[in-house]
Amino acid sequence: MLSSAENSAAKNMLLTSMIWFIVPALFGGLFVAIKLVWPTFLGDTSFLTYGRLRMVHTNGELLGWLSMVQVGAMYYMIPRLLGTKLWSEKLGNFTVWMWNVGLLVGALTLLAGITSGVEYAELLWPLDLYIAVMVILVIVNIFMTIAQRKEKQFYVSVWYFVASILWLPLVYIIGNIPEPFLHLPGVHQLNFNWFYGHNVLGLWFTTMGVAMAYYLLPKVTGLPIYSHRLSLIGFWTIAIFYVWNGPHHLSNGPIPAWLQKAGIAPSLLLIIPVWSVVANMFLTVKGNWHLVKENVIVKFILTASIFYVAACLQGPFHSLMTVSAVLKFTHWTVGHAHMAPYATFSFIGMAGMFYIIPRVTGRELYSWNLANWSYWLGTIGFLVMALDLWTAGILQGFAWADGKDAMTVVESMRPFMMIRIVGGVLMVASMLVFIWNIMKTVTSGKVVTMETSKNKKPVKLTDTKAAKPVQA
Amino acid sequence: MERNPYLLVFVAIFFFAVGTVATMFIPFTEENLMTPTPTAEYRKQVVNDNPQSKAAKGRELYMQNGCMYCHTQWVRPTKTDEKLGPVIRAGDTYYDSPHLHGSNRTGPDLLWVGDRIPDKAWHIKHLKDPQSVVAGSIMPPYKFLSDEELDALAEYLVTLKHIDNPTDQSDPQYRY
């Protein structure tokens, strides 16, 4: 049942991750957005209500799609960066099963209303334990691969991957301390909640995504990374400052002023790692901007970089107490919360799959035109939704400050909630095109030689639309 | 360090630990985060001490149906929250397990909803068919809950009220 074929763990992880891309986005994202305009949409069945679907949306997209695409990419990239093979494909494939089964059970429990009630950490403690074991199996596989490495020097992606897989269990365990067994007094638990909610983004999705981008960009452009030193500055500044950020979610909350500031000041300092990563990406491609036009993968990664900067300027901005006083609890936050996971790291995830899937299946990508469609539908869809939500949030915040009645504000949001649906439809369309493209690649893409062929010749897969003849 | 994974791991975890201790564990030394208020004692009495009570079951239902994704229980010392009643104190939710402060206010804040709408019958009617009570509401109807469950949820909502705290030493209610 568990394949030991080379690259099979990476391939299976990446392909199954697509289920967790589209299903939670459609049911938990788009349908929930429709419910904000027509609350009786989908009837009044318990498991199709807003609250239940939203839990599946966040858990499915984050613990499912994003984590899986990033771990799948790591299974592919780490062996290549270290000049070796993945230590155990069988163990890798076992984690693919664990991931999918665990998430399915998780989704069903959440739909049934079985929840810990802690936002972003809703899964019940037995499932948390299961996930911890699963992550430890991933760690074992990666560290054993490192132990058998041929290449002694660590490329920056390896740094990011290694640190991320160690931070994840630490963040996950601290953030999911089961409340029934260890009661943390109210505000402390709120603090722990946002420690998890924020750091799972910063010390897992961000660092894994950055590792992927640092691998992909030189590979698809054929250009060396602009500065190795800059990439290390980025790594250490995120390692030092990120973990402090949790309390900025408690701005103006019932916590001491020093704690709020301890959360806000490092948020501002995070501009350093963000800037160093993005500068490195842009300076690598500098002088070769035609690549953006020709190569969808480059276009995805550079767009993701722009959204990464935007997200990380917006974050510190609205963590400031006076700004937070207006924007916190509004739709603004929802727009912001989609920017890093969707427009940055899902874009890098899609770019990664466009690169890796042809190489692990030995088939040309089915259509670079469709890949371009995924890009434009996703980018425009996200911009429609995000600009709409940011505008809505600002109006909402100032309307409350103006002393407007709560219901008046709800009703005034209706047109914005409608535009949000349009953005959501485009984003879901982008995902459908993406999944169709990958599925067609796997089933009927043009066959090229496998990368594992005995003569060890690198496969000359082209990553651009203007495909040159494929060399076997 | 570019060749030594152990050193990399050690230094990365060291910095992680520094931030975690500073922002997560040092706050335990803050006295006012560790002192329950009369509101907290009241909540404990109706929920924590009687896990079989209606209010406790109502709280479970509140969690299970994700009420906290649209309703905060968090009144801040800001101009936006001026009409929502007393500003929350750290000790007010001391016994809440887990906290239900929420993060988005699509609907109104519910921290003191029991003071604002103490009528259980109103809540039950509202939960069953929100639009019949509040025109223009976008809250979904909770018709799938049994009468008993609706009663429990409404009971929980009316217990969300402020109990005066004569020893409150916190800052006066400043507003941005």
Automatic annotation (TrEMBL), chain A:
Domain Cytochrome oxidase subunit I profile, chain residue ranges per copy: 1-451
GO molecular function, one term: heme binding
Xref: Gene3D superfamilies: Cytochrome c oxidase-like, subunit I domain (1.20.210.10)
Residue spans crossing the bilayer: 12-38, 62-82, 94-117, 129-147, 154-175, 195-217, 226-244, 264-285, 297-317, 337-358, 370-395, 415-436
UniProt keywords, alphabetically: Electron transport, Membrane, Respiratory chain, Transmembrane, Transmembrane helix, Transport
GO biological-process terms attached to the record: aerobic respiration; electron transport coupled proton transport; respiratory electron transport chain
Record InterPro entries: Cyt_c_oxase-like_su1_dom, Cyt_c_oxase-like_su1_sf, Cyt_C_Oxase_1
Any Pfam family hit: COX1
One of the record's GO cellular component terms: membrane
Protein name: Cytochrome c oxidase cbb3-type subunit 1
TrEMBL record, chain B:
InterPro entries per the UniProt record, alphabetical: Cyt_c-like_dom, Cyt_c-like_dom_sf, Cyt_c_oxidase_monohaem-su/FixO
Pfam families: FixO (PF02433)
MF GO annotations: electron transfer activity; heme binding; metal ion binding
Ranges that cross the membrane: 6-26
Signal peptide: none
SUPFAM superfamilies linked: Cytochrome c
Limits of the Cytochrome c domain: 53-161
Assigned keywords, A-Z: Heme, Iron, Membrane, Metal-binding, Transmembrane, Transmembrane helix
Top-rank taxon, per record: Bacteria
UniProt protein name: Cbb3-type cytochrome c oxidase subunit II
Protein source organism: Heliophilum fasciatum
